[in-house]
Amino acid sequence: MPKQLIQQDKNWYALHTYSGYEDAVARDLKQRIESMGMEDKVFNVLVPIEKKIKIKNGRRKTVEEKIYPGYVLVEMVVTDDSWYMVRNTPRVTGFVGAGTTPTPIAQTEINEIKKRMGVEEPKYKIDLSVGDPVKIIDGPFKDFDGKVAEVDEARGKIKVLVSMFGRETPVELDFLQLKRI
Q1: Band of the pLDDT at 134, cuts 50, 70, 90?
Q2: Integer Cα distance of 119 and 48 in angstroms
């Protein structure tokens, strides 16, 4: 890296990695920082993750998903040796930036990422209201159409009126089992 590109400020930078190896890169990077005595130049390594609710086999599960698959965030002071050490970590394909110059990430963006990561329980985002036509996409009533009768935001449940045997039958479903038509 040419000398004139050296940045003496401590900033966050994004590293591009092989997808699926973000955790391995973070682990390797932390070991290299320690073994090469770079603690005064590389301060933090972060794989941004957030919790999401998914339904699998009819059961609700909270899973952790990477916010930016294929990227690892690093807080560091860019010098020749810190740049080379990070850049030559296995499975790192490069810094995000123009040419060889890493582009710092704005602190507001870092704060936003940390806020997203800090949410312990995922919030239910229910964008359905009473009267909305819906299609059931999971569970025993899969592929049935219905109409939203009640929304219980706190529990993430929705009561849907489904037409069965010539009459409307109320069925309580998880909001993840529905799709607006």
Answers
A1: very high
A2: 12
